[in-house]
Amino acid sequence: MPVPAQQRQVLLATSLSYALIMLDTSVVNVALQSMALGLDVTVSGLQWVISAYTLAFASALLTGGALGDRWGARKLYLVGLLLFTCASLACGVAASPGMLIAARVAQGLGAALLVPCSLKLIHQACPGPQQRARAIGLWASCGGIAMAAGPLIGGALTQWLGWRSIFFVNLPLGICGVVLAWRLLADPQAPQNVRFDWPGQLAASVALAALIGVLIEGQAPGWTSPLILSGAAIALVAGLAFVWIEARSPHAMLPLALFRQPIFAGSTLVSALSALVFYGLFFVTSLDFQQIRGYSPLHAGLAFVPLTAMVALASLLSHRVVRACGTRWPMCAAFVLYAMGALGLMQGGSLPNLLSMIAIGLASGFISPAATAPAMEAVAPQAAGVAAATLNTARQTGAALGVAIFGSLATALPSFTTGLSAALWAAAGLSLFAALVWGKVMARAAQPRRRPR
């Protein structure tokens, strides 16, 4: 196959599969009420439906990249896409909340294999820096368009064909992606000496799962019940064990030395906080629209279009703003926009909702690429792969925590309206905290270093 044709084939296959992944991040929220009625799922069950996916995605993302390095990006990409597609079928036929949550975990694992390997395939097919930048830009744009269209597609499918259709729609797209990827050239000989940090992987997975479980399930038995206190203790011990393992392992999945760079550490923290606020707000406002305001799935999907459309638009414009103004003040302004959007949702009414959705979408779309660039510049070139995976893991972890925390706040208080207000205040507070952190980090980075005498 001629090189340009091979490049087009790789780009088509990877862009289609990434669009599938991003579609799944936004299509499910507008079907939550229908799932709750169809499977008799509680709010905590709905939290698990969302968080199970992001939890599995976050837990396995770093290992997915390492597996691709060892066994070949094409092979692992195919395995991930097949797993995601089969798991989508399992989601669509799930007969109980437990089956649906288990299938969502499998979807997340498939995505964790697929995403890093798709970037590696692009890297292999496009050796030139400019070629590669254009290819990754198109790849990311396809994901942004899919995410923007997700609520509308999900709302229409749910209203006309039922909630199961939002998973069945993945099947033809996934099969097309598999066929396209199968026709790609075989992987070049992959190195066989890549070592895996299985103890670190286990400790990280246990810590995240226990923490999310405590946050979601804490209200029912009581926050001081033996079950919840035991879960909190497991999360703490596993988290400390993960840090201890990573500090001593010669093959650490997360080299802690990266965090000695203040800009990288700050970028990772604010990226996680941005995802926490965005996906937490996405979850609770979806419940508000459908359970409290009585929106149909299609109406709810239309209400979210300004948010997701602004995410896609701001992602495309982010680099121009950064080039003109730098990252310090625009990032701080974006987090203030988050806070204004969260507080604006308290006002009610069509216009405040619209303006709030626009503000939240612009903030989220701008922050993700704007936080990535300085982080990648702060690390050595040979650490770029693990640094990028760390940022993506931080975002997925933040997303899982956002759904768990905001969902629990929304249901812990006597009424959903009071709980929603608490979640919105929390979103505003976390956003302002992130703005303060970023401002301090960048101010410190701008200070000239004193030379030793």
What does the secondary structure layout of this molecule look like, with pairings?
Layout: H1 3-27, H2 32-39, H3 43-71, H4 73-93, H5 97-125, H6 129-161, H7 165-168, H8 170-182, H9 198-217, H10 226-248, H11 262-292, H12 297-325, H13 328-344, H14 350-377, H15 384-412, H16 416-446
Helix pairs in contact: 1-5, 1-6, 1-8, 3-4, 3-5, 3-9, 3-15, 4-5, 4-8, 6-12, 9-10, 9-15, 11-14, 11-15, 11-16, 12-14, 13-14, 13-16, 15-16
How would you describe this structure to a colleague?
The chain has about 450 residues and is an all-alpha fold. The longest helix is centred in the N-terminal third of the chain and has 33 residues, at about 130-160. It is built from 16 helices and no strands. The protein has three domains: about 1-185, Growth Hormone, Chain: A, CATH 1.20.1250; about 195-250; about 255-445, MFS general substrate transporter like domains (Growth Hormone, Chain: A, Up-down Bundle). It is about 80% helix and about 0% strand. The chain is globular, with a radius of gyration of 21 Å. The model has no long low-confidence stretch (mean pLDDT about 85).
